[in-house]
Specification:
Length: 318
């Protein structure tokens, strides 16, 4: 075999190995998506939204875990956007673009990521996750999503499984608390999964835009991120509704007061709806952990928003 043929043979072998690896990873991702349907292939809760139908009024809801429906996933039907969609009925279509741990920083980015959905109204519902400077975007972490729009679940499941094997369960893993002494086999398995997770994170950093902290002032950072999201919505000619979550604490109250002031001064046409006293988050029959709502609590949020969303659509028709 001559040098040229040897090089071609090696290149073909490498290409075959890479292709086989990607096929295996894709098959594994399809399997875990079927078993743990946290989000659809496009990276948001619920079924993939098809083409916008004639006369359809499309609403996207932006925010963190209180939008995503933390505590009920993968049952996306219990999150408040799903309740809102059912309560509104046709011609409304409500799409849940929330994601755990994300804050106002991710809202403008989600509008860019899902510009093809062509929403008529964007509901911005986040403040809790911005009581500290938050520049996290779960979708932005994935190089595959950034390049193709396909959101892989496998890295999340790998991470959760590694934590469960090493710490006893995933929740303890996030807290760094060992709840039992894992066997050598499980420690080895956890180490292998953690290595795979690190490789995945290294790939995800390729070409990812850096998240800069525009200010160390927590409320200032929050207001800047909300204003950027509103401007992105305006660029796309999307109507905006800013909604204040149920009151969490005094810091949250001060944050929302600053937000209302900013909206009056910079975006007087953007309405603010306060749900501060709609629900008492100290009532664990409504807010099971003092923040995230039960099915009943989510339905109450949806009911409060129904007449306001209908009003926004009526205004858009004139």
């Amino acid at each position: 075999m001559g040098p040229r043929r040897r090089i071609l043979f090696i290149a073909a072998a490498i290409a075959l190995a890479v292709t086989a690896t990607f096929v295996m990873l894709f098959a594994a991702d399809v399997y875990v998506r079927h078993k743990y349907p946290l989000v659809n292939r496009n990276g948001y809760a619920g079924p993939v939204a098809g083409s916008k139908q004639p006369g359809e009024y499309r609403v996207v809801v932006l925010g963190g875990s209180t939008v995503f429906g933390y505590g009920y996933s993968p049952d996306w039907t219990k999150a408040f956007p799903a309740h809102l969609g059912r309560d509104l009925g046709p011609p409304y279509r409500v799409i849940n673009l929330g994601f755990n741990n994300t804050g106002a920083y991710s809202m403008g980015r989600a509008l860019v990521q899902y510009e093809y959905l062509k929403p008529d109204l964007a509901i911005m519902y986040e403040g809790y996750n911005d009581l500290g400077v938050n520049t996290f975007d779960m979708r932005e972490q994935s190089f595959l999503f950034r390049w193709t729009g396909y959101y892989p679940l496998l890295p999340i499941i790998v991470s959760e499984k590694a934590k469960a094997w090493r710490y006893g369960d995933a929740r303890s893993g996030y807290l760094g608390k060992v709840m039992f002494k894992p066997s050598l086999l499980k420690r080895t398995g956890a180490a292998t999964l953690e290595m795979a997770e690190q490789v995945s994170k290294a790939l995800d950093r390729v070409g990812r835009p850096d998240a800069t902290h525009p200010t160390e002032n927590i409320i200032g950072a929050y207001l800047l991120h909300v204003s950027r999201a509103i401007r992105e919505a305006q660029r796309q000619h999307i109507d905006v509704l800013v909604v204040g979550q149920p009151r969490l604490n005094i810091d949250h109250e001060q944050q929302q007061a600053a937000l209302q002031k900013m909206l009056r001064e910079q975006f007087p046409s953007v309405p603010y709806v306060s749900l501060a006293h709609t629900i008492d988050v100290k009532d664990h029959s409504i807010a099971w952990d003092g923040m995230h709502l039960t099915d009943e609590g989510n339905e109450r949020i949806a009911q409060a928003l129904v007449p306001i969303v209908r009003q926004r659509r009526a205004l858009s028709l004139h």
